[in-house]
Each structure stands twice: as structure tokens, then as C-alpha cells.
Write a structure and sequence with these properties.
The structure is a homodimer.
Chain A lengths: L9 H15 L6 H7 L7 H5 L2 H12 L14 H17 L4 H4 L7 H16 L4 H25 L3 H13 L5 H6 L7 H16 L4
Chain A binds a DNA duplex through helix 3.
Amino acid sequence: MDHEDRQLSLERIVVTVVELLHAEGVDGLKMRRLADRLGAGAMSLYWHVGNKEAVFDLALDSVLEYRAPPGIVASEDWREDIVHILEDWRAGMLRHPWSASLLPRRALGPNILSRLELLSKTLSGAGVTDADLNVAIWSLWNYVIGATITRANFDLSDDDRAAAQQRLTGLSQHYPTIERSRLLLDNDWDGAFRKGLDFLLDGLAPRP
Amino acid sequence: MDHEDRQLSLERIVVTVVELLHAEGVDGLKMRRLADRLGAGAMSLYWHVGNKEAVFDLALDSVLEYRAPPGIVASEDWREDIVHILEDWRAGMLRHPWSASLLPRRALGPNILSRLELLSKTLSGAGVTDADLNVAIWSLWNYVIGATITRANFDLSDDDRAAAQQRLTGLSQHYPTIERSRLLLDNDWDGAFRKGLDFLLDGLAPRP
DNA sequence: ACCTGAACACCGTTCAAGT
DNA sequence: ACCTGAACACCGTTCAAGT
């Protein structure tokens, strides 16, 4: 609440809405509450942003900014580059658990387009032909989006996990194979993400 | 509107909410409007359902019901079985475009658990070990969820697609590789889904 | 057991009005 | 150019009351 004395600006709005979303989640974003945090009158926002959807678009794109480590330009191993790009993208979204679900529902902002361009360029440099590029990009997009939305929403508290385990074991006669796979119980999300990604990359460009 | 004279029941509520969601989308679902469609007083729903979230859960699970073709039990080709299971799942969700985004945010209902059990059993029967089952299921889940949410939300009208094309070409100096991949312009969603899925399956269980 | 209307505590957004 | 409060048209849900 140290914003009270300053003027409104798009930048301040963006910073503050990300804070608010972090604190209260998607459903907690109310125009009045956002104005409050900015120390502004309830309706002052509308001079700057149009409507609430625009606020979401701003928050989402801001979170997807790519802070490229300036050293690493092109490594020897394109596969390592792809994994790095996608893990960084996923990590950025997981830092803001509200963001992943929003991404496939809004128009693509400049920051996500930059990430996709970098991904495309790396795939292309690795020898993927233009004809295959579309499928390659979408496959990786689908995998990352699905994995991140799921992880952001199913990252249960210990209590919840215990309850889910309880529930599944109670139903184990109906779902024996799920039970055997320990579907909701294995906690190694990062490892599972990486392993599945490796499988997908194996298919996209078989290793020699 | 031919429901006016009948009594309320969970089944009628489920059928009607799916109709309403189909007609108005997720944001169009209002408790009052749902009651209207049922020919009931505005607040009568609350005797049956608890709250609005429960209504969403009911709608989602109902849409995910698996109508197994009773003939096909186990074909020769497990890979074909997997593809069929996942394409049927995806098609079911695309028939109700509001459903895919909802699925990873809610607790798993009985119908989606049945589908996952069938998927697990098929993978297991194909030789995937219990240790690998978790990763295999999640990889396929991630891919299907990501693909379906994206398709349900990016299935643009012709006008929108023209606008998006216009916008991307205007930015082609910034995103040349995306432009070359014709990312948003290729319209063959089904084909792209299948091709990407084949890549993933190649990785999960390489063909001889 | 099942349904209802009135009422409460919210929302997003418009708009005329202020500086 | 930038901000504001009052007001409008909604919401989900509670609750006492009806049959």
C-alpha cells in the first residue's frame, strides 16, 4: 500500500494487478480492489484500460516476458536449447499460477510471440523443415500448456492430497490401473514434465 | 422451454445446464437463467445443488461420459486403441467447447476417471511398466488437454482469422519464423492433433 | 420434502461532473 | 488530460416463509 501518493500509469497498473492476482487469484481480481491498491478512486482505472479483460491481457503478457540470459545464444545441443526454452516458459507461468489457464484463452501478446519465435527458430535451426514446423510448435505448445495448467491447479495441499488418496483407494476396485500408476500421488512434477518432454522430442526428432 | 410443468430433479438440471452452456458459454451460465430455463423459481436450485461450482462439476462430468462402442473391446493394435480413446475424448470435449478449460481445474469426476482407467489399462496391456505408467498417462493427458483447450479457444471465425493473419504479417519482421510456419493459419486441427500424438507415441513406445 | 420471494452484499461499467 | 462519486443493471447466496 505504498502507492497512495503517486499518479496512475499503465506501468503501475500492471505491477499492481500482478501483485493482486498473486495474492488473491483470478477470482480475487476486482476492479474496485485494484483501484484501492493503487490508492485511486474506484473508477479511475477506466481512463487507462478500457475494461477488465484488458487488465487480464496486460497482466498475462507482463508475466510472460522473457529475460534471456545474454550469454547463452546458441549452444551445441539444440535439444538442450528446446528443453531450456520450455522449462523457462513453464517456470515463469508456475511463478504466477493464474497465468497458464489464461494464456490459451486470450490473443497472443508480444512476449509469448517472442518466446514462440525463439522456439521456432531453434527447431528450424535443428533441421525441422518449414512443412513440419507447424506441427512441431503446436505439439510442444500443447504439452507445455496442458502440463502447466494441470500442475498449477492440481498442486494440492498435503491435506487435499491425503483426501484424494483416500478417495481413490476407496474406489480402487473401479480404477485398479490408475491406482497402480499412483496417478495423483507421485509428487515429482518437474521430473514428470521433463520425462514426457523427452518422449515427445524423441518422436519429433529421433536421436541417432 | 418445454420443461415448465415438470418437477425439478438433478437429471433435469444436468441436461438443462449443458444446453445453457452450449447456448451461452461459461460466462453465460447464471443461476437465475438456469432456473428460468427449468421453469422454476429463481432460488429453487439451491435445494438440489449447494452452489454454482457444483453445477459446473455436474455439467462437466456429464459431458465426459464414455459411450463405449460395445463391439470393440481389444483390437490387435494397442496403438490404434490409444489413438481412438484420445480422439474420442477430445471430440467429446470439442462438442462442448466450454468443457476442456474446466477439466483441469475441478476434481476428477467418475466419468473422466473411467476414461483414464481405460487408457491406463491399454497402456499397461501394451507393455508399459507400472513405473512408467504415471509419466505415460500424464504426457498423454497434457497433450490432449493442451490441444483441446487451445483448439476450443482459438477456433477463430473467418473474420478473426483474417485479422490475426493481417496482424501477424504486419509483425513479420519481428516473428519471421512463426510467419513461415503459418502458425495460426493452417486450419487442419484434427490432422495436427493426430500427427503430434503420433510423435508422442513414437517416443513413449518406439515402433520396431 | 420441496419450492419461493424478498433481501443482502456484492460486481463491472456508464456518465455527468469535477480539477 | 486525468480523476471522481453516484447510479444502473446486474450477480450469487441466505433465510424466513410457504405448500
